[in-house]
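Human:
Care to share another protein and its fold?

Assistant:
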Amino acid sequence: MRHVISPLDFSVEELDKLLDLAAGIEKNPAKYAHACDGKVLATLFYEPSTRTRLSFESAMIHLGGQVLGFSSAASSSAAKGESVSDTIRMISCYADICAMRHPKEGAPTVATAVSSIPVINAGDGGHQHPTQTLTDLMTIRSLKGRLDHLTIGLCGDLKFGRTVHSLINALVRYSGISFVLISPEELRIPDYIREDVLDAKGVSYQEVERLEDVIGGLDLLYMTRVQRERFFNEEDYVRLKDFYILDKKKMSLAGKDMLVLHPLPRVNEISVEVDSDPRAAYFKQVQYGVYVRMALILTLLEVEV
């Protein structure tokens, strides 16, 4: 039995195989329509989510399986004080596989210690978000044709953004990757990512504050929202929430082949006027997320079609 807590739980070779499977599902979804008949996915979401939870549910339904679960801690026995360990033991009696989102870093790892079904980390605090990373990788590979030799701009909340942390960890394993880290000083990438990942692996990167100065040299711009729920005081959030707004004027400075990605939800960091730009790929990302989660469920349940 295998769990997925980090994108690094897959080797590069395993990752390529998973993305190949997801691409196969995209081309011929009918082939997989009954692959998980009789299987049940449990979605344990202790933190609000729209895309990730519904994407998992959509993935399992499209595979012919069924879904059960809860969408907030308040609607589960966690409100009564039940531990994550007890919850996963109980859920293991009901389901074949589980997707868990939790506000505390490491909670899905705790679950894996006692679970008798595969556990997928669907986001734990500001730590990791591996299935979003798999979605990002599929989007980049499908639209760019490769995962190496890319200059990637990461813009916005790089301090608390778990999607950014996971994506950096995944992409540093490919050759020719360089990062442009675009953020205000207060939201810079954490030291452990800078020192233990980027510096330790000799990855090329620069840290800047102005998006306009660097957008022209990017193959990919990954926008993130400033996350209100990660701030300790409202004053800091209000001061920083509109620090970056991608609009047509800034897009005019970018290359004609640059892609814009965003894990969503957006607030106002990407103007709606950008949505019609052919370089805007964030809604395509959402669709790729279903395919990659279908591939992940099949892989963890060891279902072959």
